[in-house]
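Appendix C: a fully annotated inverse folding record. The material below is reproduced so that readers can follow the format used throughout the book. The structure is listed first as tokens, followed by the designed sequence.
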């Protein structure tokens, strides 16, 4: 089976391509830029994006939206993660967390698959904490400040791809896809 993954983020594409190969699915990168929608939840944002794309590209595509949710910041940056990363970055989140004891956080990923007639939604999450400093050189986005079992995602390298929120969402999707298509 062949499937288009719509993203402008090459790092996400490489991660998803690796997961897809485990299921015998070929994923092509469709580097298609579109305005990011806003909403109350990642599911709402991803579904709005998929519906927009359904009128512009061929069916049998998948998109993914993800966010960092920090408990002490009442879920911020959440659905605004991409914008927050572009504006204040990892340094800004660490600044907001100065002196905060509760550093619990989670990464959440939502995958939407459009088969030409229906939209299917899958979700994955991983719990961790916000590190006290930027650590590691691998990964992208908030990976250098998201700590999972003592290491930041940026310190984990390929090991991250075995436990990430994105992996969990795409595993659910690929398991479903292999049974239904």
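Designed amino acids, in order:
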């Amino acid at each position: 089976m062949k499937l288009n993954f719509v993203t402008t983020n090459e790092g996400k594409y490489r991660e998803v391509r690796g997961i897809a190969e485990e299921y015998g699915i070929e994923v092509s990168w469709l580097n298609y830029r579109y305005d990011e929608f806003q909403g109350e939840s990642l599911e709402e944002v991803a579904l709005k994006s998929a519906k927009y794309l359904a009128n512009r590209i061929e069916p049998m595509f998948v998109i993914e939206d993800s966010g960092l949710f920090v408990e002490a910041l009442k879920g911020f940056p959440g659905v605004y993660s991409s914008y927050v990363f572009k504006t204040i970055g990892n340094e800004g989140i660490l600044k907001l967390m100065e002196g905060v004891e509760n550093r619990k956080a989670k990464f959440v990923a939502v995958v939407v698959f459009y088969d030409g007639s229906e939209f299917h939604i899958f979700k994955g999450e991983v719990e961790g904490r916000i590190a006290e400093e930027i650590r590691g050189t691998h990964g992208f986005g908030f990976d250098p400040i998201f700590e999972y079992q003592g290491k930041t995602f940026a310190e984990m390298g390929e090991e991250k791809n075995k436990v990430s929120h994105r992996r969990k969402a795409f595993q659910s999707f690929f398991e479903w896809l292999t049974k239904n298509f």
